[in-house]
Amino acid sequence: QVHLVESGGGLVQAGGSLRLSCAASGSIFSTAVMGWYRQAPGKQRELVATITRDGSTNYAVSVKGRFAISRDNAKNTVYLQMNSLKPEDTGVYYCNAYYSDFFGSYDRWGQGTQVTVSS
């Protein structure tokens, strides 16, 4: 079983920066595709960024060039550095782990951390 705990959210002014962290328990972290998703009030959850075990990254168009996802397999932690934040980046940010084992594939989610960007 994988348990994910996010931290680092908060209130920041437009143009500011925040760094989110997601600590994962379990032995599968190094093989999992890790991702960050967000959900704004009244909207569906959307992909922000993903990173494979080899470090290949993928970003939503809306955050490309401003956000950076990274991982430290030794610490079982994935990060999301958010720069040049905009009010439209406001939402609850969720960490996600997608991994497989002999028995199947699994999606795990953290509890979320609130990011609020004021104009």
Q: What is the share of helical residues?
A: under 10%
- Mean pLDDT, to the nearest integer, reads 95
- Per DSSP, what share of the residues sits in E-state strands of 2 or more residues? over 45%
Number of strands: 11
Would you tell me the structural class of the helices and strands? mainly beta
Q: How far do the termini sit from each other?
A: 40 Å
Radius of gyration based on Cα positions: 14 Å
* Main beta sheet: 7 strands, mixed
pLDDT < 50 runs, ≥5 residues: none
Task: Give a concise summary.
With 119 residues, the chain is mainly β. The chain has no helices and eleven strands. The chain has strands spanning 4-7, 10-13, 18-24, 33-39, 46-51, 57-59, 67-72, 77-82, 91-101, 104-109, 113-118.
